[in-house]
Amino acid sequence: MKIVAIIVAGYLGAGKTTLINRALEERQGLRSLVLVNDFGDINIDASLIAQSTDNIISLVNGCACCQIGDDLTQTLEALISRLDQFDRVILEASGVANLANLRCHFEGLAEHFLLQEVLVVDGSRTNDLIEDKYVGQHIRAQIACARNILVTRLEYLDSAGRKRLTNLLNTLNEKVFFVDGLDSLAECDVELAIKSEKHPGFHSHVVAGKEPLDTKILEDWLAHLPDSIHRVKGYIETEGGWVLLQYVPGTTELVSVDIQSIPQNYLGKLSVVCAGENIHKGRLTSPWLQVDRTTACS
Question: What is the pTM of this model?
Answer without folding.
Answer: 0.82
